[in-house]
Design a protein that fits this description.
It contains 9 helices and 19 strands. The longest helix is centred in the middle third of the chain and has 21 residues.
């Protein structure tokens, strides 16, 4: 219990609310119900609360704990949506066993969100800080981050902590990504007439070989000191219409992971060079590509005040020196950093991100909540 609020009860409530992102799984309920729960919790704690509709039926819940003035402001950011539940037997039971709470979203990231809610409820019971604390529970992080993008049209703070699962490490860097589609053009024809047909799937095989070679170049190329090299992989391939026909088209969806200093233009150049090279080798080869959604990497210096304050507070609460680290996944911290809000990640540990068995460690959630409250007290002083 922290500040009179029991961490397992808050987390249990959150996990029992289905909040599957409907952009990922048609029929998913989205964030409306869980956003209302968060808004009601924050209102009861004494914060100024707003429900922000970012898309039809898709909501952020934003609470502001006003300070006295003269101090720095801090955002605690966590997403409300989850991925789907394929293969899970009891995704919303919030079963507790051996100090772990199981269920979809328990680790990613309702454990961190519960810690943030408990932290601001505790802060609301204490003498007011100098600066404001904003709890932003956002929609759509698992797809295109419409929630944080909408939030940033209205809210700015001096720093942010994104409560993704980090195992109580202070994470200051992660990779970005860009999606793209490549389409090869063949010539549809009867399978018995090879002189008339051109095989778009075979053409795509050449592109796939080039993607494999590109990964080799990335492995051998410049490396970021914390994150290593970028990566590229084929995600989806489709083409053809039947066994007895030459395929007229084939489509490849791919993803390129970006290290700091890279953006979507790097993949644009790489694909352009691949298509030029393959076209020069065979005049029959036809292909085009289009870039899709992209998100930049995160790199926050460890000397940044919020990172330094968080590490000091985590060490005090946990009872050992808190480590700095990196993460493999992308987060909304990159969007916050991109508009000038120094941002780090900090959240509880567990296992099973996006898998059939997901859990978060309850003791980690409690320690995370205490650390967040402690850090707000330090960072928001005048």
């Amino acid at each position: 219990m922290i500040g009179g609020v029991q961490v397992p009860l808050v987390l249990t409530d959150l996990v029992k609310i289905e909040s599957i992102n409907p952009e990922l799984v048609p029929g998913g309920k989205g964030e409306a119900a869980i956003a209302r729960y968060v808004a009601d919790f924050l209102k009861a704690a004494g914060l100024e609360v707003q429900l922000q509709e970012v898309r039809p039926g898709r909501f952020n819940a934003v609470g502001v704990l006003r300070g006295r003035g003269g101090g720095k402001s801090l955002m605690l950011n966590g997403h409300l949506d989850t991925v789907g539940v394929a293969g899970m037997e009891d995704p919303f039971s919030a079963r507790i066993e051996d100090g772990r709470l199981y269920g979809r979203g328990a680790q990613d990231m309702k454990g961190g969100l519960a810690a943030g809610l408990v932290a601001v409820a505790q802060l609301a019971k204490e003498p007011r800080l100098d600066g404001d604390v904003v709890l932003a529970a956002v929609a759509d992080e698992e797809y295109q981050s419409a929630g944080t993008r909408a939030l940033l049209r209205q809210v700015r703070t001096d720093a942010a902590i994104v409560m993704e699962p980090t195992g109580l490490e202070v994470v200051t860097a992660h990779k970005g990504f860009v999606w793209a589609e490549v389409e090869t053009e063949g010539r549809a024809a009867h399978g018995s007439r090879p002189e008339e047909g051109r095989d778009a799937i075979a053409f795509m095989g050449r592109v796939l070989r080039e993607i494999e070679l590109l990964q080799g170049k990335l492995d051998a190329g410049p490396r970021h000191p914390l994150l290593g090299c970028g990566s590229v992989h084929a995600s989806l391939v489709s083409g053809g219409q039947e066994l007895s026909s030459y395929p007229g088209q084939c489509r490849l969806s791919l993803e390129r992971r970006l290290i700091p200093g890279e953006d979507s233009e790097v993949l644009e150049r790489e694909l352009h060079e691949i298509i030029l090279r393959l076209s020069a080798q065979d005049p029959r080869f036809r292909a085009r590509f289009a870039l899709g959604y992209s998100a930049l990497p995160l790199e926050t210096p460890r000397e940044t005040p919020v990172a330094r304050a968080l590490a000091q507070c985590a060490s005090k609460v946990i009872g050992r020196e808190a480590g700095f680290g990196t993460q493999s996944f992308w987060s909304d911290a990159a969007l916050l950093s991109g508009v000038g809000i120094p941002s780090v990640l900090f959240g509880p540990g567990g296992a099973g991100l996006h898998s059939a068995e997901e859990y978060v460690r309850l003791e980690d959630v409690r320690l995370c909540a205490e650390t967040l409250a402690e850090c707000a007290g330090v960072f928001c002083k005048g």
